[in-house]
Write a structure and sequence with these properties.
With 205 residues, the protein is an alpha+beta fold. The chain contains two helices and 14 strands; from the N terminus they run H-E-E-E-E-H-E-E-E-E-E-E-E-E-E-E.
Length: 205
């Protein structure tokens, strides 16, 4: 009888050890998978163009600060960003175009992917403020779940906003996104706070 109980105890202990081992292995696996799924990407909002360092950090621009340039407004765009909720429809240029500058238009940042790249991240920045350059002046009205679209090479890509957060405005920005998703990131000055910038992360639907 004692031997039978002893064998049963051994079997029970064995099952317990196996269960603990399985829990630890699966927990490490899923934790690692989650860590790999979400990446923290720090990018600079300063770029070099024609040998000069250009500050692409979004600022609040007053209406009187900039004169309208029709050549800029009527250029050949690479793509068009559209957000119906805030009545925004604005084109942007390719990375190497001299008009791809936050001082002239919505800017496609150098580290950006193009919209047709799987699991890539299209990053657009623009001024807020009341001038014609304040393309992102109403982004603060957006909420998680709102939609934005990008038309690129004859295809329209629709994104849903999944994250909105602020970061200190210091020439760099940290983007938190699911690297297993194709995303659109929009960055502009935080409303009523010139020391911060707001990041809007949207995932392709």
């Amino acid at each position: 009888m004692k031997k039978k109980l002893s064998n049963r105890a051994i079997v029970i202990i064995g099952f317990i050890i196996m269960a603990i081992g399985l829990f630890l292995v699966t927990n490490d696996y899923f934790t690692g998978k989650k860590d790999k799924a979400y990446e923290k990407v720090s990018i600079s909002l300063f770029s070099e163009q024609n040998g000069e360092i250009v500050d692409n950090t979004p600022q609040n621009i007053a209406a009187a600060d900039i004169e309208v340039n029709e050549e800029i407004k009527n250029g050949n765009y690479l793509g068009v960003l559209k957000i119906d909720k805030i009545n925004l429809e604005q084109g942007f240029y390719d990375k190497d175009n001299e008009l791809n500058n936050v001082g002239k238009n919505v800017t496609l940042l150098g580290p950006s992917s193009y919209p047709d790249q799987k699991n890539g991240n299209t990053i657009l920045v623009a001024h807020s403020g009341s001038s014609y350059l304040g393309y992102f002046k109403n982004l603060w009205k957006l909420e998680i779940g709102d939609l934005a679209s990008v038309s690129y090479k004859g295809t329209t890509y629709v994104y849903k906003i999944v994250n909105i957060y602020n970061d200190v405005k210091d020439g760099d920005v940290t983007i938190y996104r699911d690297k297993n998703k194709t995303t659109l990131t929009m960055i502009t000055c935080t409303k009523d706070d010139d020391t911060k910038q707001t990041i809007y992360v949207a995932e392709l639907q």
